[in-house]
Amino acid sequence: MENSSLDPKLLELVKKLEAKYEVMGQDLTSYLDGLLYSDYLTYWDYIHLDTLLSLQNPKTHFPDEKIFIIYHQITELYFRLIILEIEQITFDTSLSEEMFITRMDRVIRYFRHLEDSFDIMTDGMERDQFLKFRMALLPASGFQSAQYRLIELCSTDLINLVAIDSRKDLDSKSDLGKLIEKLYWRSGATELKSGKKTLTLQQFEEKYARTFLETGEKYENCNLRKIYLKHFPDSKEVRERMREFDTLANVLWPLAHMKSAARYLQRDPEDIKATGGTNWQKYLPPRFQKIMFYPELWSDQEKNDWGKAAVIKALG
Ligand code: HEM
Fold first, then answer.
1. Is 24 found in the same domain as 87?
2. 242-272 residue pLDDT tens
3. Same domain, 80 and 222
4. Which atom of ligand 1 approaches the CA of 122 most closely?
5. CA of residue 15 to ligand 1 center, whole Å
């Protein structure tokens, strides 16, 4: 085909492509040759469907174990979406209030979905099957979700994640290593008297201690709390978003999650032990941990009653 018969738009595109490849010292014709022989993209290749569907490998023959695995995977993907949004906020060098609010709305939307869908766990599996297949999963626990911890670390200052009993001995200026050592979930999985860590915690730390330390350092001055206080301290809209995010992450999702622990593990006269070995009745309720990402946005009364309103509403 002669040049003159080529659509001028196409010609223009080819010229642009040629310029693009020339900058890198590459020959466009070779790349066009490659295009000639390459296959068309398919949906299943693009989203790696076969790989995705090959990632559910139950430890037992109970069919409901697949629900358990898949719902954990779904949750981890939502956690990934949440982290992606927080990273966009954190590393935006010309952050506007509009951008901040749009991204926070996405984070909030993801968390709402997670809270809403938790009944897939609470009501969606046969208790008898669950109680059997869970024994094959020891000592693994959702407690070991590193992404859940990363969301916490990039949402607030470390002092707000310190175990309630240690908060009086430390403050925001304390050494980063010390703050990390006293994170609430570490205390939750450590026996108070002997200082002995559960195996679940030991393994979790072996794999991720370094990542958590690095993330703590990375977000020390640019976590969501630092950012909203620096850029939009007086914005009512921003404060509303922060309160909603705090409630979802630290009250509503934990309560939805706890309901499933109660459904499967509560038993008279003695409750069933958690696979991660925590004293889950004391560890999981938000009103005991009192973890708040943005304590400055809550009144003393609201802090005292942390988690209470949601429990009353749920019972109501
Ligand atoms: C029937 C379903 C579930 C039950 C009975 C359950 C039970 C528990 C228990 C008892 C704990 C306390 C730690 C331990 O000693 O093991 C825990 C922690 C945790 N689980 Fe689950 N879980 C369920 C589903 C899930 C799902 C679907 C996720 C999603 C990733 C998840 C994520 C977590 C996280 C992040 C923690 C740590 C919470 C914190 O440190 O505040 N769990 N779970």
1. no
2. 999 999 999 999 999 999 999 999 887 788 8
3. yes
4. 1
5. 56
Please determine, for residue 275, whether its predicted confidence score (pLDDT) is greater than 60.
yes
Instruction: Round the CA-based radius of gyration of the chain to a whole number and report it.
Output: 25
| Closest by CA position to 74, among listed 173, 158, 147, 154 | 147
Q: Is residue 118 in contact with ligand 1, taking CB distance under 6 Å?
A: no
- 278-288 pLDDT per residue, tens: 888 889 999 99
CA 130 to ligand 1: nearest atom: 1
Residues 284 and 231 grouped into a single domain: yes
Residue 110 included in any domain = yes
Same domain flag for 235 and 301: yes
Are 287 and 268 in contact by the 8 Å Cβ rule? The answer is: no
Distance, CA of 44 to CA of 101 (rounded, Å): 34
- What would the pLDDT profile of 84-111 be if each residue is shown by its tens digit? 999 999 988 899 999 999 999 999 999 9
Range of the structural domain that residue 307 is part of: 64-315
Q: Same domain, yes or no, for 175 and 250?
A: yes
Asked whether the beta carbons of 294 and 243 are under 8 A apart, the reply is yes
For residue 118, the ligand 1 atom closest to its alpha carbon is 27
Rounded to whole angstroms, the Cα distance separating 162 from 153 reads: 11
**Residue 139 Cβ < 6 Å to ligand 1:** no
Residue 103 and residue 155 share a domain: yes
Query: Smallest Cα–Cα separation from 287: which of 166, 192, 168, 164?
Result: 164
Q: Model's pTM, two decimal places?
A: 0.94
CA dihedral 97, 100, 103, 106 (to 10 degrees): -70
